[in-house]
Amino acid sequence: MNNGPKEPINDEEKNNKHNNSKETEGSRKNKKGNKSTILKLAIIGASIVALVVISVIVYNYVSYQNYISNRIAQAEEAKNKISDTLSKMDDLKLIENATQVRPDPEKLMLEDYPVIGRINIPSISIDYPIITLTDEQMKEPNIDLRYKRPLELAIVKYDGVDSNQVGNMVLMGHDYRDQSMFGKLKNVKIGDTFTITDMYGTTYTYIVDDIFDAHRSNDIP
Is 187 among the domain residues? Predict the structure, then answer.
């Protein structure tokens, strides 16, 4: 079959095709360049995010290590002061008759806090002084600041009567991860015994007959 002679391609058409070919090649290069730029930006962005995450992890790790170091130092300091206070309490003699001079409880201090007794829970190896706050210390309006330091030192009387008096005494202590203070209190069981020694050297033994979670309310301070 004869399709007849093809029309000759003039120079203008050749130039147009050549230009179109150049434009197509340029577009491909531009697209490649754009993809390369996007990839580089993505890598840079990912690197920045990774650096931020690593920095946060390092900061938290260092902060935690500093917290542990400070906590160990505080615990050691408190342990020494507690040991010294308990040793002084061991020197208190049981009053045998009314002619003996009773010690003034406020003369035995743990730092700036009066010692009012001692609590011992043999089943969980707890043996700490019980301290209270002076009237002046109770004037601190911020309750967290008011009890921050005493709770680092010993078990603190929060409310109620003093040791071994008629009535209820509310004690509080930190639930430390290292099991110090009241950190092991959750292991106490019904039937366990504990003792409270007052500043006159008198020790009373108490039996745990109920365990419950107390939440602050109008009835419970």
Answer: yes
